[in-house]
Amino acid sequence: MTDTRLDVLAIGNAIVDVLADADDAFLEREGLTKGSMRLVDAEEATRLYDHMGPGRQVSGGSAGNTAAGIAALGGRAGFIGQVAPDQLGEFYIHDLRAAGVELTTPPADFGVPTARCMILVTPDGHRTMNTFLGAAQHLPAEALDEAQIRDSAILYLEGYLWDPETPRYAMVRAIEVARSAGRKVAFTLSDTFCIERHRDGFNALIDDGRVDILFANEAEIQALAGVPHFDSAVQAFQGKVETLVVTRGEKGAVGISRGEHVAVPAERVDRVVDTTGAGDLFAAGFLAGQAQGRDLATSLRLGAVAAAEVISHYGARPEADLRALVAERAA
Fold first, then answer.
1. Cα angle 222, 158, 100; round to 5
2. Residue 106 CB neighbours (<10 A)
3. Burial call 45-55: b when 16+ CB within 10 Å, e when fewer
4. Distance (Å, whole) CA 122 – CA 100
5. Close Cβ partners of 42 (under 8 Å, ≥ 6 residues apart)
6. In this structure, which of 1, 24, 136, 235 has its CB flanked by the most CB atoms within 10 Å?
7. 272: how many CB neighbours lie within 10 A of its CB?
8. CATH superfamily ID and name for 6-14+60-112+134-329
9. Helix, strand, coil proportions of the chain in percent (round to 5)?
10. Residue 43 zone, left/alpha/beta (φ > 0; ψ -120 to 50; rest)
């Protein structure tokens, strides 16, 4: 894919992850349920952020994690996502660019601050997540750099961002631009709750031939197909997209492309610490492989190696040298 400037351009929620240690007493005072994930409004986000202790910040969001993973693998990655003109917005842009990702979407004032996910980690390792989606949910079509889309071999879209209407229009426009330029479109289903809300919309994208590479986990592909059996769900979609990739946790992953069916095992890890970002980094490895012209099996192994690295520690960003790992394990 030498005729492109970027290997992968990802579009998704621009969310700053704020991780801080907390004890059970703090959770009780704040009325939080340990290990839960909830959406919060701007007032609650500000209140909780002010009450938290010192924390570590990292530019997050599903598609942002994938873009950072591709860059860590030596790929040419870009990201489109909306932040506000505030401190966290400035941090998000700086942090993602520092990870080697091209981000040109300008901050915009929609009357809400930059999205953040406040993650409280208790001594027993439980993560209590409080997410405010803020400016991320206001990405307009006008913010797209259409030349950037045309210059990217693969456009990667995050299903989470399909929920609000404004960024949905932006994503549809991005698909139109990518397909008119002869580029591949990849789509991740993100979560079963996204499918429950948008099953018809997701199926329309697929049935209309606007998705070339579809990512799902086992529960998501079954939810989209509306059947309780894995093999039946895979069979329902394997002929509708050029490439179907389904992750299965400890059972590995399956890829089907143009009649070729490949299954790879999960990479062994000494201890699973935190599964956050596993799917994001699997997608990063797979897409990096595809952009490099690797075959289906090798691309799946790249995904498995990247996912295994990120679940071996806290956080959704790789800490080891991914290029060295894939050279060793997926050559």
1. 135
2. 12
3. beebbeebeeb
4. 31
5. 112, 113, 132, 134
6. 136
7. 12
8. Ribokinase (3.40.1190.20)
9. 45, 20, 35
10. alpha
Closest CA to 208 of 232, 177, 176: 176
In tens, the pLDDT along 204-237 reads 999 999 999 999 999 999 999 999 899 999 999 9
Which residue do the tokens 């969001």 mark? 61
3-class SS of residue 48: helix
Q: DSSP string spanning 304-324? A: HHHHHHHTTSSSSS--S-HHH
Model's pTM, two decimal places? 0.91
Whether the Cβ atoms of residue 157 and residue 190 lie closer than 8 Å to each other: no
Tell me: the pLDDT tens digits for 48-90? Answer: 989 998 888 888 899 999 999 999 999 999 999 999 999 999 9
Closest Cα partner for 167 from 196, 151, 183, 190? 190
